[in-house]
Amino acid sequence: GADGAIDTTPSLLELDAIKTVDASAMALVSLAARQVDLARQADGAKEVAKSLISTNYQWADKQFSCLDQLWTKESHWNYKARNKVSGAHGIPQALPASRMDVVSTDWRTNPVTQIRWGLRYIEARYDNPCKAWAKFKRSNYY
């Protein structure tokens, strides 16, 4: 401006960039919310797990079959499942359940958080779901 002030009004190009970032951020938030809704039912939880496995893990297809057997035994893929004796919680039956905090503190209500944690746990501890399932069959826990 004539008074020496710097014009801080964003250009049309800058406004366009902001809108684009907002739109893609909103799309990600929307996708995440849809995944959570989907995973509240067993079939949806299985679809989310398959998707997370294909994106984040180098596991063969048969590994999902082992995971399905394991988590069906543990929780029937129910994110509200809770073992009254041990306190194990959620789809992967984390014990103590607060261990899932490393993924997110919303593990009580978010099945996707539970699935993410469970897949990480299986990879870290057993390498893959079939090895975790073998351990479960021997010991009735994994």
Descriptive account of the structure:
This protein is an all-alpha fold and 142 residues long. The chain is built from five helices and no strands. α1 packs across α2, α2 packs across α4 and α3 runs parallel beside α5. The chain starts with 11 loop residues before the first helix and ends with a helix. The mean pLDDT is 91.
Descriptive tags:
142 residues, mainly alpha, 5 helices, 59% helix, elongated
> Which value, in Å, is the CA radius of gyration?
21 Å
The helical percent reads 55-70%
Based on secondary structure, the structural category is mainly alpha
**Total helical elements:** 5
Strand content: under 5%
Shape: elongated
SSE order: HHHHH
Measure the end-to-end span. Answer: 69 Å
Q: Please count the beta strands (DSSP E, at least 2 residues each).
A: 0
Q: Provide the residue-averaged pLDDT.
A: 91
Largest sheet: none
Poorly predicted sequence stretches spanning 5 or more consecutive residues: none
How do the strands and helices of this protein lay out in sequence?
Elements: H1 12-39, H2 42-56, H3 62-75, H4 111-126, H5 129-139
Helix pairs in contact: 1-2, 2-4, 3-5, 4-5
Summarize the structure.
It contains 5 helices and no strands.
